[in-house]
Amino acid sequence: MFDDTRPIFLQLAEQLASDILRGRYAEGEQVPSTNELAAYMRINPATAGKALNLLVDEEILYKKRGIGMFVSDGAKQRITAERQQGLTESYVKPLLAEARVLGLTATDIIRLIEKETEQ
């Protein structure tokens, strides 16, 4: 489930964000508690709490004191925008840089992508 390349709390926060994107947790819906996540994932409760607090800091979740954590309004849009930015930085910009070196046009790149999606 978790790998050794990044801290567990970051991986858990990313997994919860993915669950929100996929509709597992809707805006306004309660997410599992720190202790529930820790027990289910077999991790330290402090690690689970750190993941949840990170999502609170990013305004993906909000706390209702004494009740639990809930998905914020607009959380799905914030996650999508952040991931699109990451996709652009990690993949699109390097792709365009390499395409320039190879002398490819935008049309050439689109054709390559379409060819790959057909396979």
UniProtKB/TrEMBL annotation:
Entry keyword annotation includes Transcription: yes
Q: Enumerate the GO terms in the molecular function aspect.
A: DNA binding; DNA-binding transcription factor activity
Q: Does the keyword DNA-binding apply?
A: yes
Q: Name one Pfam family in it.
A: GntR
HTH gntR-type domain span: 6-74
Entry protein name: GntR family transcriptional regulator
List the InterPro entries hit by this protein, alphabetically: Tscrpt_reg_HTH_GntR, WH-like_DNA-bd_sf, WH_DNA-bd_sf
UniProt keywords, alphabetically: DNA-binding, Transcription, Transcription regulation
Protein origin, superkingdom: Bacteria
